[in-house]
Amino acid sequence: MKKCFFGVLFLFFQICLSQPFQNWKGYFSYNQIKDISESSNKIYAAAENALFTKNIASNDVNTINTIDGLSGQTISAIYHSDTFNKTIVGYEDGLMIVINDADGSMLNVVDIINKNIPANIKRLNHFMEYDGILYISCDFGIVQYKLATLEFGDTYFIGPAGQEIKVYQTTIFNGDIYAVTQYYGIRKAAIINPNLIDYTQWQVFDSGYWNGIVTFNNQLIGMNTNQKLYKHNGIYFQEFGTIGQPGLDIRATSNYIVVTSSNHVFIYNSSFTQIIHIQNTQITSIPVTFTCATVANETIYIGTNENGIVSSPINSPTNFEFIMPNGPIRNNIFSLNSSSSNLWAVYGGYDITYNPYTYLPSGIGSFGISRYNEANGWLNIPYSAVFDANALVRIAINPNDETQLYIASYFSGLLKLENENPTTLLNQSNSGLEGATGDCRINSTAFDKSGNLWMTNSRIKNGLKVLKATGEWQSFNMESILTDYASNDFCKIAIDKSGTKWIASYKNGVVAFNENTNIFKKISEGVDLGNLPSIDVRAIAVDNRNQVWIGTNRGLRVLSSTGSYNSDEQMKANAIIISENGVGAQLMGESFITDIAVNGSNQKWISTADSGVFLFSYNGQETIYHFTKDNSPLPSNVVNDIDINSVTGEIFFATDKGMVSFQGTSTRPADNLDAVYVYPNPVRPEFVGTVKIAGLISKANIKITDIEGNLVYETKSEGGTVEWDTKAFGKYNVASGVYMIFIAAEDASETAVKKVMIIR
């Protein structure tokens, strides 16, 4: 398969990144704070897989995410070095990223990832800087990192007989380095000892069970797993505080000790007197649990699991303020739907077997809804406002009234929103929907051209339903077409131009239905039954040439025409055969396909459960892009859903670790050439990118000439936008000047002329 990658290949080797990815945007959640660090003028917050900073003087908040070069993996620790003006980010998989705060460049350090130790013990837990060296506490031991040269030093395996043991935290006291371990107490060694790689040089300082250690006011302070705090008086540890819960974080600032548990933050002064106790129940605007806390510039900053950072002046510790960049409720977005001006997101869901009860380790998904637009940013509608509707899975926007939408629940029925407000929860008690209480499973939803909302109702006989524009309900019995309807689950639905519904299912392949014929037909597994590679169909789309693209858990098939539904013969979908190294192969063979989206040029975006996203030409013979977490800002190769803004061409990718978008150029074709425009215009010397000519009709001929009439570029539009790289037929940059753009319909029935100025 040919693979065309955009721009610079982003590899997980030691490589510096100083330029952001062009044409990409990040839409990350900054709710869940993993760690906090501080400098003389900033607070640094590590969310699940992105960062944000707050300037203490100006209150400006800035974000850093995969668009800037961060990994999409889960962050476990952050540290800012004022001395070296660098921010170090540690990850659960052992990756470390060093950010040069002077210019924003990033160094991906993969030495720990590449260490020959089990992958599940590479987590980075804590950073401690001493004398220009960063001591990194890991799940296997301690690693040195030299901040001046950005090179690793020694690795210390300090367990019995030199075995790998988890180290939570380190500190320096009276010339010794102290390490708190998971099961082997506190260990110490002389920091100047040149042979610390020898485990016998590390003494057992205390054999108890500890989970944190700091140095404060010239004393050693420990946090014990018995939920108490101790200071070492030179002979033994002496209790001075009680947490009442397992401690999560302990740190020492210049004037305070700050201790955090999930429900409490305690602050002690230099006399070890508790001066502040903040409980999460004091924060009444939204339920929160704590993760970490610090004090900077006499202000308390508390990381939460749900709502970013809570801050409060230390002299007024109940005057709370939330600090969090605008973003969605969480990173793991289950599905999306984009209209011309709004993007909607829901968080699901069900597991791979369509079980909503085991979607999360804690059980069913109980989340709100998010809406994004350029004018107002994110609006997050909380779970408390959606009538206890769980497992929200699909969004249908009324094409005739964008202020009205319906959200399917795979547990509670169908939620209606008007003007961004949930108004009604439709279920088996107040509508044509069916199912037991708490088991009304609606998934696929789609409006037809008459404004009727079609939907699937899983595990019942009348599995296809329609809510008509008049408010009437109608159901269609699917018992004759479904194998074991009582255990069948539906996925997505697509409606073609003739009104035929194409329905993806878990155990019955693709089901097709048109109410004008009142006939159900099926495309299933096996050559004689439809030629699908699997009856588990996860994605379906009707393209601009009336072909049905079908994505299964084991590959891709294409039905050549929607008109096949009207034939008496068994509908048959075929694989797309491509040449790979001179050998014929099936396109997307054996891939677990999660979604298919068709852009304005009839190209296909296809997402997968483990291989990122692809953009294929209209017939699948050319791979235009293949984006993964290793060569793009995709935070994960697990892509749940894709949606396209047909007006702007922006493509949204929802992954299990956050959402990003790519600015495509294949927008929906216009009806005429009245609104053609060119951007940017003028093109200034510092601009990096391409000139876009938008508002085009399909198959328009575009010719670009210099002011003297010399042709420098020509092309034909597929959708509503074309690009020009400001080169003369791709060979060399054109000179400064005014360039004429001549546009004509394929039949020359209408024309337009535009100008663009190039400044070199």
Question: What's the N-to-C terminus distance?
Answer: 38 Å
Count, helices: 0
Helix coverage percent of residues?
under 10%
* Poorly predicted runs: 1-20
Gyration radius over CA: 29 Å
Main beta sheet: 8 strands, antiparallel
What structural class do you assign from the helix and strand content?
mainly beta
Number of DSSP E strands: 65
Q: Please, could you describe this protein's structure?
A:
By secondary structure, the protein is mostly beta strands. The protein contains no helices and 65 strands. It is 0% helix and 45% strand. The strands form 16 sheets. Strands 35, 36, 37, 38, 39, 40, 41 and 42 form an eight-stranded antiparallel β-sheet that branches. Strands 1-10-9-8-7 form a five-stranded antiparallel β-sheet, with no helix packed on it. It has a four-stranded antiparallel β-sheet with strand order 2-58-57-56, with no helix packed on it. InterPro entries: PorZ_N, Reg_prop, Secre_tail, WD40/YVTN_repeat-like_dom_sf. Residues 678-758 form the Secretion system C-terminal sorting domain.
Helix and strand arrangement:
Blueprint: E1 16-17, E2 24-27, E3 35-38, E4 42-46, E5 51-55, E6 61-64, E7 75-81, E8 86-91, E9 96-100, E10 106-109, E11 124-130, E12 133-138, E13 142-146, E14 151-156, E15 167-173, E16 176-181, E17 186-190, E18 203-206, E19 210-216, E20 219-224, E21 228-232, E22 237-242, E23 249-252, E24 257-260, E25 264-268, E26 274-279, E27 290-296, E28 299-304, E29 309-313, E30 321-323, E31 335-338, E32 343-346, E33 369-373, E34 377-381, E35 392-397, E36 404-411, E37 413-418, E38 421-426, E39 440-447, E40 453-457, E41 464-467, E42 473-476, E43 490-495, E44 501-505, E45 510-514, E46 519-523, E47 537-542, E48 548-552, E49 555-559, E50 577-580, E51 583-586, E52 593-598, E53 604-608, E54 613-616, E55 623-627, E56 639-644, E57 650-655, E58 658-663, E59 677-679, E60 691-694, E61 701-706, E62 711-716, E63 721-724, E64 737-744, E65 751-758
Antiparallel strand pairs: 1-10, 2-58, 3-4, 4-5, 5-6, 7-8, 8-9, 9-10, 11-12, 12-13, 13-14, 15-16, 16-17, 17-18, 19-20, 20-21, 21-22, 23-24, 24-25, 25-26, 27-28, 28-29, 29-30, 31-32, 32-33, 33-34, 35-36, 36-37, 36-39, 37-38, 39-40, 40-41, 41-42, 43-44, 44-45, 45-46, 47-48, 48-49, 50-51, 52-53, ...
